[in-house]
Write a structure and sequence with these properties.
By secondary structure, the protein is mainly β. The protein is about 0% helix and about 50% strand. The protein is built from no helices and eleven strands. The chain has strands at about 1-5, 10, 15-25, 30-40, 45-50, 55-60, 65-70, 75-80, 90-95, 110, 115-120. The strands form two sheets. Strands 2, 4, 5, 6, 9, 10 and 11 form a seven-stranded mixed β-sheet that branches. Strand 5 and strand 6 (about 55-60) form a beta hairpin. It is globular and about 40 Å long. The model has no long low-confidence stretch (mean pLDDT about 95).
């Protein structure tokens, strides 16, 4: 199984970025897909999830600004990030979990991508 994350970069506050996570080696439709982020000196935290039931969940800190989506034909999950803030600066990771019910705990995910850096300047 391989998860390949991309799309990070440097953006000014108020700007937008779209992250992508391409999955291979798994049956994409069986998995909950999620984005987490980790800022320096902090624990990895939940950002958003798109479940195998096609439901979506968001952390309060990003609700209304970020949108998670998935393209089953491309085995890819996306995170559209708008109205970015300096506090969104972190390494963003995508995870895959085959549990029946999604979780916001990073320990519950079976596979991880390599991470992509997002830096928001003020």
């Amino acid at each position: 199984v391989q998860l390949q994350a991309s799309g990070g970069g440097l953006v000014q506050a108020g700007g937008s970025l779209r992250l992508s996570c391409a999955a291979s080696g798994l049956t994409f439709s069986d998995y909950n897909m999620a984005w987490f982020r980790q800022a320096p000196g902090k624990e990895r935290e939940f950002v958003a999830a798109f479940t195998w039931r096609y439901t979506t969940y968001y952390a309060d800190a990003v609700k209304g600004r970020f949108t998670i989506s998935r393209d089953s034909a491309k085995n890819t999950v996306y995170l559209q990030m708008n109205s970015l803030k300096p506090e969104d600066t972190a390494v963003y990771y995508c995870g895959a979990d085959r549990s029946r019910y999604y979780t916001r705990a990073y320990s519950g995910y079976d596979y991880w991508g390599q991470g992509t850096q997002v830096t928001v300047s003020s």
